[in-house]
Design goal:
Largest sheet: 5 strands, parallel
CATH architecture of one domain: Orthogonal Bundle
Strand content: 5-15%
Strand order of the largest sheet: 6-5-4-10-11
Number of strands: 14
Length: 559
RNA sequence: GCGCCUGUAGCUCAACGGAUAGAGUACUGGGCUUCGAACCCAGGGGUUGCAGGUUCGAGUCCUGCCAGGCGCACCA
């Protein structure tokens, strides 16, 4: 069940007024204008506003204020709307009716599990592919941002009526993996007293030695007694599985979970790699130069061509990425695909778009979100992160130090476009006073009231919501009503960073209400008010919980 | 050199081309004998990097500068 949006109702009223004005000859337009209805920044300007008269003033050569008056007079009456007011220089402001607002408390109460679900996606399939770290080491802080962003975006899209697949692309083929396997093998040999050196540019991180140690414990020196190539292959298989398992556990720890882990190697096993390449060749996008096979992405607007098969005959990473997107669009037929990449891959956007176009899919259905870099600091000192040298702070260390909820909130509240500095000392210090807890505290406080009411066996099901007339009560209801609109908006803009800011406002609205409106009163004269307010508290809890759920944060009953 | 992103309060960051640019944090002062003070109230704090332009209206769009980040491989 989806929550209807008041905003859409207002939009329709305006559209009706425009149509009526045209019929009456008060408005002559070549094209029907796109109507915008917004939430004004200031409460005094009403619940909704449209700037339509201002935007039509030029085309119609009419005074915007007079046009606003005219249009306002054609706006039909509606149950939800108390007042329509024209404001200079040409806004039309809408004020919601108190009785209608009160009634929304009942609406929320009746949809505890689905409030905030809207039908913007109409069941369209969308894949969100994110994190996709090479399984050559654990997930670190930089990847955590994309992980939190992707998981929240997926939640939002699901709430907005899309059929969402969360996918992790496991880069388990290619030369970096080979390098990793050899590194583990070298550590394995060393652990058994065999003099061995790490490959040049091998992985030197402590976790590689630990991995080798685990293999020694489970398998002893089995792999010393066989042909080296076979040993590396078998140790490689073990290491890869362990590493992917570790990545999965770490992500799960910060509540990032996937519907599917897609292996790059399967692209070669199923023949999809070959199909994708053949398809490009047939379309004339491939050419051979300098013993390598090139994708002529310049034909599609990229500023340079890219190698897909090296002169050694080995496919590049880009080649399997093409095959992977062939799988996403052509094989699995996702209507929309969202890739979340780090800023260091930003330069590859044009070629990926070009490749999708060359495969015969619409590149507009591929959205690549770029999450900017996270610079990690400890006080004034910058902590360099390098997987190769093994110096980095892992996701798990971070989440354990700062806390999962605070961590998610911290990453989530910032626009992906903005680089961030993550000061571990500051984060630890601030974690106790993190806004995340402000929101959770609102939920816990709320739960405290409901639990007390239940302990006292108060039955509030007959509460009369029309008693909720205090400005703090109405403000809380108004804030609650914004969640479904926000879900629709975020699904469209793909900007989930609005969610934490909204949740803060919702928590504030609740704390204000709590401060000013006693719910469970000892005074028998307040009996009816108590019942009405318990309904409000119940509905507020639903919206707080839904907001926290969407962000992947806990909604504690006590803390 | 070219491309993408960023520059807003002391700090960390919001703001779909709209109305007096907002939060958190820090600082100062105030508020618990009643549902949880991890809360609330009040206060100071800004030439939105700089300069032009577009328009009824620009932090937001365009142009040029300045500063920072990331790219520009037959690595991923």
């Amino acid at each position: 069940m989806e929550t209807p949006l008041v905003r859409d109702t207002i939009l329709q009223l305006v559209a009706q007024a425009v149509a009526q004005a045209q019929r009456e000859g008060d408005l002559q337009l070549q094209t029907t204008p796109e109507i915008e209805v917004d939430r004004p920044a200031k409460g005094q300007h009403g619940d909704f506003a449209t700037n339509l008269p201002l935007r039509l003033a030029r085309a119609t050569r009419l005074n915007p204020l007079k046009l606003a008056d005219k249009l306002a007079s054609y706006i039909p009456a509606h149950d939800a709307v108390a007042q329509v007011v024209v404001a200079p220089p040409g806004f039309i402001n809408f004020y919601l009716r108190e009785g209608w607002l009160q009634q929304q408390v009942e609406v929320v109460r009746q949809t505890p599990d689905s409030y905030g679900r809207v039908d913007a996606g109409h069941g369209r399939t969308v894949m969100v592919e994110f994190v996709s770290v090479n399984p050559t080491g654990p997930v670190h802080v930089g990847h955590t941002r994309g992980a939190v962003l992707g998981s929240t975006l997926a939640n939002v899209l699901e709430a907005a009526g899309y059929v969402v697949t969360r996918e992790y692309y496991v880069n388990d083929a290619g030369s970096q993996m080979e390098n990793f396997y050899r590194s583990v093998f070298a550590r394995y040999q060393q652990a058994l007293g065999v003099a061995a050196e790490l490959p040049a540019n091998g992985y030197v991180g402590q976790y590689v030695a630990e991995l080798a140690q685990e293999i020694v414990q489970a398998h002893g020196q089995t792999f010393l007694d066989m042909d080296e190539a076979a040993a590396i292959k078998q140790i490689g298989d073990l290491s890869r599985e362990k590493m992917v398992g570790l990545i999965r556990e770490d992500l799960s720890f910060i509540r990032v979970n996937f519907d599917n882990w897609f292996s790059e190697r399967t692209l070669f096993q199923t023949g999809e790699y070959q199909q994708a390449i053949d398809r490009l060749r047939q379309q004339g996008y491939l050419s051979e130069r300098e013993n390598a096979l090139w994708f002529n992405s310049t034909m599609l607007g990229d500023d340079k061509d890219n190698v897909v098969v090296r002169s050694t005959g080995e496919p590049t990473y880009f080649a399997s990425d093409i095959a992977y997107h062939y799988n996403k669009f052509i094989k699995r037929e996702f209507a929309q695909v969202i890739d979340i990449w780090g800023a260091d891959h930003q330069g590859h956007v044009p070629r990926m778009k070009a490749a999708v176009a060359a495969l015969g899919a619409n590149p507009e259905n591929l959205t690549i979100l770029i999450a900017q870099m996270v610079t990690l600091k400890r006080g004034a000192e910058v902590v360099r992160a390098s997987k190769r040298t093994g110096e980095f702070v892992t996701l798990r260390e971070l989440a354990q130090e700062v806390g999962v909820d605070a961590c998610r909130y911290f990453f989530l509240a910032r626009s992906p476009d903005a680089q961030m500095e993550f000061d571990l000392e500051l984060a630890k210090k601030e974690s106790s006073e993190n806004p995340a807890y402000y929101i959770q505290y609102a939920h816990a406080r709320n739960a405290g009231i409901l639990n007390l009411a239940r302990n006292r066996e108060i039955d509030w099901s007959r509460g009369d919501v029309s008693l909720l007339r205090d400005p703090n009560e109405l403000n809380l209801i108004r804030t609650m009503l914004r969640l479904p609109e926000l879900v629709a908006k975020m699904a469209q803009s793909l900007e989930p960073h609005h969610l934490p800011h909204y949740a803060m406002e919702l928590a504030t609205a609740f704390h204000w209400f709590y401060e000013n409106c006693r719910v469970i009163s000892a005074n028998p004269e307040d009996g009816q008010m108590t019942l009405a307010r318990l309904k409000l508290v119940e509905s507020a809890q639903i919206v707080l919980r839904r907001s926290l759920e969407l962000m992947g944060m806990g909604a504690p009953e006590r803390m």
